[in-house]
Amino acid sequence: MTFAFAASAGDVRLRDLVMVAGARDNQLVGYGLVVGLAGDGDKDPVYTQQTIANMLRRYGINVPATTLSAKNVAVVMVTADIPAFVKQGARIDVQVSSMGDAKSLQGGVLLQTPLLGADNKVYAVAQGPISVGGFSVGTGGGGGGASVTKNHPTVAQIIDGAIVEREIPATIVRDNSVELLLREPSFISTALMADAINEVFTNAAHAMDSTSVQVRMPEGAENNPVDFIAALENIEITPDMPARIIINERTGTIVATANVQISSCAVACGNITINIASTLDVSQPGPFSKTGQTVVTPHTTTEVTENKASFVTLPELPTVEKVAAALNTLGVTPRDMMAIFQAMKQAGALQAELIIR
Prior knowledge:
The chain is of the alpha+beta class. The protein has three domains: 9-21 and 171-237; 26-164, no CATH class; 242-357, no CATH class. 17% of the residues lie in helices and 37% in strands. A six-stranded antiparallel beta barrel has the order 4-5-6-11-8-7. The longest helix is centred in the middle third of the chain and has 14 residues, at 187-200.
């Protein structure tokens, strides 16, 4: 059994902890067609046929949508994140997701697709061969056929697949000040950030709340904000790390920070296994009987097995390493450990935030 935990934090540069207000990503989305799917495309839904007809109309070909076959074509949604300060002509990655009932996008090519922002303006245009990273082969679904599917063949990406056509304006300096936004809100961390910045730039930083620190630019830096922000991002602090345990019940993963503590308590963990078996018996009438008929009767048996368990006293455990060692000695599974953590939290013995995914 593996118990994952984070090591204690050391000095970290501010660039790894904060983002500059105004220098944010923006989301783009578009609707397009992937062609060349060799029979794995959509099964002739109306919107796919109409989309193909609309595309052909742009090239002067007018045909009724109902006469078109979509088996080699799939309608897709194209999404992308465009970072701040990206200039015209730069390239960004895009994700392509099937919108219809296509079996796979493998081997397809995305046709020119405009990507729009929240203001309904085009900021990039995507096109090119897609990379699926998975496959789906075989017939499946009857006739003794079998199929094999790896990953998600209906979701793909195109590295550098979109060309930026419009730059998104960004303002990072307001009233001769720069605002730093902490990615993990903490009053302790913002106070530490302000103190560390003031050691370099005297009386320049002020912690506004648990997320933001406002930094006033010194005289002479107004004309060169890039160098000033670079100097800020290079300052190091030891950030505050909250006591936190994250449990993912779907994957059986447990992650704990170094500050997790457990007060003195006693733990007993026993497993209960319930086995239910159902069999079919045949009840027949007697020989030469003129009445009655053969009847199939179900028969169910239930077995309950409970493993023995005894209380194990745990002393006060001040570090996550000792918590992991103590719980591992119980010989419990990760799923049992999840239940133990939840019970400890309800009993008030777990001095940490418990997050269940």
